[in-house]
TrEMBL record:
<feature type="domain" description="NAD-dependent epimerase/dehydratase">
    <location>
        <begin position="88"/>
        <end position="335"/>
    </location>
</feature>
<comment type="similarity">
    <text>Belongs to the NAD(P)-dependent epimerase/dehydratase family.</text>
</comment>
<dbReference type="Pfam" id="PF01370">
    <property type="entry name" value="Epimerase"/>
</dbReference>
<dbReference type="InterPro" id="IPR040911">
    <property type="entry name" value="Exostosin_GT47"/>
</dbReference>
<dbReference type="Pfam" id="PF03016">
    <property type="entry name" value="Exostosin_GT47"/>
</dbReference>
<protein>
    <recommendedName>
        <fullName>NAD-dependent epimerase/dehydratase domain-containing protein</fullName>
    </recommendedName>
</protein>
<dbReference type="InterPro" id="IPR036291">
    <property type="entry name" value="NAD(P)-bd_dom_sf"/>
</dbReference>
<feature type="domain" description="Exostosin GT47">
    <location>
        <begin position="878"/>
        <end position="1055"/>
    </location>
</feature>
<dbReference type="InterPro" id="IPR001509">
    <property type="entry name" value="Epimerase_deHydtase"/>
</dbReference>
Length: 1112
């Protein structure tokens, strides 16, 4: 054809003809070569079938590029080193893959600029410490790639390439906010390309080294639910979810740019590679919501592990292999950029044209998720239950990738098998735990407190208790006339709270102080024979034991305190302050409360101990936990190579058969990598610690709002009278307030499990039917309103159906009836169950499917006592519910009357429920948090296990002069303790107060919790000894704050550390789920089904328990 063109067009014009002919020949050759390149975009050689049609097979060797001459794969072994001659921009560098990639590039002395919305400063500092050269090589830009100013600032004249990791990188996150997913993943790529074009043209910004290349982090999700395996790069891109669609469209954006530049006459070009990542795992800083890190971290803490469907069979690639792929891709592109040429025709060189290449990054083999889980349970020696919820077709279940093309052209081959990868990850996580424990021990335990005379002097003016040894219990000094004086020692700590004394302390000598104890208008005195009240000695000389803080006291005349305990060196006392009005708390006395140690640090101690120390208990636990972690690390290190992990059986037992069931609850530490302080002899439980989400746009989940620009935040006027209602309307309860595992289940809007309301014995059933009011009426007098049991029963009755093999059975139980008459119920429950089993239930009925309500006192334990020690001695859960699930108000962890992960904590029924609906049923009547005038409030009697805590909470503290608080104007606000503002009642005060502390009383639960939440006051949880309503489902950290018992001396300082914006979000979240805490009004049980109320959460929480298997 070209010869004919020569003769017909140029034969008669011999002068310029040859030149034009050569030009046409070159142009035609170039066009055909570009068509060949186009045919390769997104395609892969299917060598496994040996049927790939390729232009290159028939193309002249002298026109092939240098890369196309290589036919045999050159596979790199070990860690691949980067060979890049300039700076690389890494978008999304603060993420899991990003930080690992930064380390690899910096270790190879490659300058890097990283741009991301969020960087964890401690992780950046770790990079700087491990790679000292990074101080000069690494630039960090905090910003969004959709912010042109931030993005442009990342590009400098020495930039040679871009690795785009910035993305909404999880399927679930994309499903929750599709517009934002598309905006980041698709438009964001286009913006990166435009920035590259602006800064990559030859001659601009001082550049002379050619156009920058691009590596796009794509995903196996672009293939969707593939029909043939292994999946090749040429397989159809039929994404099954919005995340996969966004990644496929991102590749299309790059393909369009490549085609445009190929035909452009401006000389610019783009070399790009899309790496279609399989399931990447192994990064110790990965999102804990992802499959493998989620399983691993929960296995380490022995917490329930959730799998969706359980049929997944996926290709998992270790992060180190994935980083190898990125580096190999960068090296390939850098070679192309540096060479600047492709094929040659004689001495005439062609520029290497623009091109997008796609490669699968995978292991090339799949692992069933159940097998993965069995290996994780093995390497962690975990006692985790396993919860299996229905599958989700938006998440493709099967995937195996072909890596033939990646091996041949990049030299990539996955080198780390799944067993080796899991071993590395478990070791990394346990290393994090070990490092944290070592630092914590150093900070908290290395320097024990020493006590001195100056510490005693600081007790002057404080209020607290006086404690001594007793024959069986610690004794507390109490007022009351006796033969020896106006006092007596109370050694029975069952039902009387420690009395409070005021300490008057003055200087006496270098080693002693003078102490007087004052209460109710008189001083404590010791009388001589014949002396009357008021004539005895009231001054005592006190000497301090500097190691223990124990005090030895006697009168100035040398008389001892009759009845007080003693050791070989005399009588011993401890002065424990609860409140030092309007002055700084006297440490270390404030922290060393032996009563608090006995109540809150143990689940089985039945007496106080004068030497009890919360610090010593914590340090002992830290030391034991460190030993446990070290043993696990040593075991992992001792495994022979290559790593072969055992496959332990998946659990099959019920909740009551769990081998951790009878263990006391572990302590939680929000700074601990897995939160739980596992000593090997305790049970890890869910905490109120904020979830450590690394996703910067989590607050916009399930909304249609774009995260950039932040229009919502810009328009938020916290002083607008309708701001709370507007914020609630823009927010989503599932994304904002529900724990991740529960959210995955509830996101598919599951139906209630079938449930049957079984019949009571005939005589009780007749009484129930004929005198319903006796069971149902809301109490408005006496001891409060505790008829939630009958309210739940009536809700169940409205949906009761015949017994099924997969359904629940509800056995009624009534804690309280009107006129102070207990209806037979609790103690009769075993008899009622026997009756149901005999007459109404199948003979093979599984008792783990039994549900019964316990809505008063200590829940499944049949008593009411004021002392936690007595409760521990008496604790004996109702045998009828031993295998079943209790819907119980009792969620205290320090008494064996609540079983985490088996029982569902439900709210009590408040007497004020109708008043709450009337006052605050319309959210517009709930005052927005920024417009409230009181800082904090609490009013309650000091009794039960919470007696001393309530005294600490209500202590006047100086905070008006605190500097650098985040709560603007908060230091000028007033707190109201045991009183209300002038002219306001209880509900009006709640509606005008920012924070409402919830200290325990007899137990940790109270109706005050419901009142506070419905009125929009931020709950302040004191300590971590109580699981509040629907703790298993609702993330309380999203609508409350938590303060430790040992932090109460600076309560206001902690509360003032929040910003109004943060508190507004907490209040908004609280409004999203406040219906969960309020039962239907009498005469309208239909409210059970019109709102997400207590029955809704109780039923779904029970369903999750039923879908959980426990290791026995």
């Amino acid at each position: 054809m070209l010869f004919s063109l020569w003769n017909s067009h140029f034969g008669a014009r011999r002068g310029r003809g040859p030149v034009k002919a050569i030009c046409i020949l070159v142009v035609c050759t170039w066009c055909i070569y570009q068509l060949h390149r186009d045919s390769q975009l997104g395609l892969a050689e299917d060598d496994s079938l040996n049927q790939q049609w390729s232009w290159s097979s028939a193309w002249p060797q002298w026109l092939k590029s240098e890369d196309e001459h290589r036919q045999e794969p050159f596979v790199h072994e070990g860690e691949v080193q980067a060979r890049v001659s300039g700076r690389v921009v890494v978008t999304g560098g603060g993420g899991n893959i990003g930080k690992a990639l930064l380390r690899r590039l910096l270790a190879a002395q490659v300058p890097v600029t990283s741009i991301d919305v969020v960087f964890v400063e401690s992780e950046l500092e770790a990079i700087r410490q491990d790679i000292p050269e990074s101080q000069s090589l690494l630039r960090v830009v905090r910003g969004d790639i959709r912010n042109q100013t931030a993005l442009d600032s990342a590009f400098t004249p020495d930039v040679v390439g871009v690795i785009n990791l910035a993305a909404v990188s999880r399927v679930m996150w994309c499903l929750e906010n599709e517009p934002d997913c598309h905006d980041v993943n698709v438009r964001g790529v286009d913006l990166v390309l435009k920035a590259m074009e602006r800064f990559g043209r030859s001659g601009t910004s001082g550049r002379s080294s050619g156009d920058p290349w691009l590596i796009q982090a794509s995903s196996r999700e672009v293939y969707g639910s593939a029909r043939m395996f292994p999946v090749h790069e040429s397989s159809p891109r039929e994404a099954a979810n919005v995340y996969g669609i966004s990644k496929a469209k991102a590749e299309e954006v790059i393909e369009r740019r490549v085609r445009r530049l190929r035909w452009s006459l401006r000389g610019s070009k783009l070399h790009a590679i899309a790496l279609r990542l399989s399931n990447v795992y192994g990064g110790e800083f990965d999102h804990h919501e992802r499959l493998v890190p989620g399983m691993m971290t929960r296995a380490i803490a022995h917490r329930p592990i959730q799998i969706v469907g359980g049929k997944q069979d996926l290709d998992f690639v270790h992060i180190d292999d994935a980083i190898n792929a990125f580096v190999l891709a960068a090296n390939r592109l850098e070679h192309k950029r540096a060479s600047g040429s492709g094929g040659k025709l004689g001495k005439l060189a062609f520029r290497n044209p623009s091109k997008l290449e796609a490669y699968n990054v995978a292991a090339g083999e799949s692992v069933p998720v159940t097998e993965l889980l069995r290996r994780i349970l093995s390497i962690t020696q975990s006692a985790s239950p396993v919860q299996t919820i229905p599958g989700d077709d938006r998440f493709p279940d099967n995937y195996i990738a072909s890596t033939i093309k990646a091996a041949r052209e990049l030299g990539f081959h996955a080198q780390i098998g799944v067993e080796e990868g899991l071993h590395r990850l478990a070791t990394a996580y346990m290393g994090q735990t070990m490092g944290y424990l070592e630092r914590k021990i150093e900070d908290a335990c290395a320097n024990p407190p020493r006590f001195g005379v100056s510490d005693l002097l600081r007790l002057d003016g404080c209020n607290g208790s006086v404690v001594t040894y007793g024959p069986d219990h610690t004794g507390y000094l109490s007022s009351g006339d006796s033969q020896e004086g106006n006092f007596w020692w109370h050694f029975d700590d069952m039902n009387i709270e420690p009395q409070v004394w005021t300490f008057e302390v003055t200087d006496h000598s270098d080693e002693e102080v003078r102490v007087r104890l004052f209460q109710s208008g008189q001083h404590y005195e010791v009388r001589h024979d014949g002396q009357s009240n008021g004539e005895g000695e009231t001054h005592f000389l006190a000497r301090m034991d500097d190691a223990t803080g124990h005090v030895r006291m006697e009168t100035e005349s040398g008389r001892q305190l009759v009845g007080a305990g003693e050791d070989d060196n005399g009588q011993l006392f401890r002065l424990t302050p609860y409140c030092c009005p309007n002055k700084q708390a006297p440490w270390p006395f404030m922290s060393e409360d032996p009563l608090a140690s006995a109540m809150f640090d143990s689940r089985d101690t039945v007496r106080g101990d004068l030497s009890g120390s919360r610090r010593n208990t914590l340090c002992a636990r830290l030391d034991t936990a460190s030993t446990v972690a070290r043993e696990k690390l040593d075991r992992q290190a001792s495994l022979p190579k290559p790593i072969k992990l055992a496959r332990v059986p998946l659990p099959t037992g019920s909740a009551t058969e769990w081998r951790h069931r009878d263990l006391p609850a572990c302590a939680n530490d929000c700074d601990h990598p897995t939160v739980c302080l596992d000593t090997g002899s305790c049970m890890c439980v869910e905490s109120a610690c904020p979830v450590r989400s690394r996703f910067p746009f989590a607050s916009l989940a399930r909304l249609s709002t774009l995260s950039h620009p932040a229009k919502l935040a810009e328009k938020l006027d916290l002083l607008h009278p309708d701001v709370l209602r507007l914020s609630v309307g823009r927010s989503n309860w599932l994304a904002n307030v529900v724990r991740p595992q529960a959210a995955r289940y509830l996101a598919r809007a599951p139906k209630f499990m079938p449930i049957n309301l079984t019949r009571l014995p005939d005589d009780i059933q007749r009484l129930r039917d004929d005198d319903a009011e006796r069971f149902d009426k809301l109490r408005t007098n006496g001891n409060g309103c505790f008829s939630a049991d009958s309210t739940l029963e009536r809700g169940v009755k409205n949906m009761s159906r015949p017994v099924t093999d997969d359904g629940l059975v509800f056995l009624p139980q009534y804690a309280w009836a009107e006129q102070d008459t207990f209806v037979p119920g609790y103690h009769s429950l075993p008899e009622w169950l026997d009756n149901a089993l005999e007459h109404h239930l199948p003979p093979d009925f599984d008792l783990s499917r039994l549900v019964s309500p316990f809505t008063h006192d200590f829940g499944i334990c049949p008593f009411w006592v004021r002392s936690v020690f007595e409760a521990r001695r008496m604790a004996s859960p109702n045998p009828a519910i031993e295998r079943g699930t209790a819907w119980s108000v009792m969620g205290d962890l320090n008494v064996n009357c609540y079983r985490p992960d088996q029982d569902i904590v439900v709210p009590p029924r408040t007497c004020l429920q109708d008043s709450l609906r009337e006052e605050f049923g319309d959210i517009a009547k709930v005052r927005p948090i920024r417009q409230r005038t009181n800082l904090a409030t609490f009013k309650g009697s000091p009794w039960g296990q919470g007696a001393t805590i309530r005294q600490r909470v209500t202590c006047p503290r100086p905070y008006a002069k605190l500097q650098h608080t985040r709560l603007e104007g908060g230091a000028a606000m007033k707190s109201y303790w045991n009183t209300y503002p002038s002219g306001k009642d209880y509900l009006a005060t709640l509606n005008d107060t920012v924070f409402c502390p919830l200290p325990a009383g007899i137990t940790g639960w109270s109706t005050r919790v419901i009142d506070v939440i419905y009125a929009g006051c931020i709950p302040v949880l004191i300590g971590d000894q109580t699981h509040h309503p629907f703790w298993d489902t609702l993330d309380w950290s999203r609508f409350s704050v938590q303060v430790g018992e040992d932090q109460l001396d600076r309560l206001e300082e902690i509360l003032l550390g929040y910003s109004w914006t943060e508190l507004h979000q907490l209040q908004t979240n609280m409004m999203l789920v406040r219906d969960a805490f309020l039962y239907p009004s009498e005469g309208d049980m239909g409210q059970h089904f019109r709102a997400r109320g207590p029955l809704f959460f109780a039923m779904h929480g029970t369903a999750l328990v039923q879908q959980t298997m426990f290791p026995t």
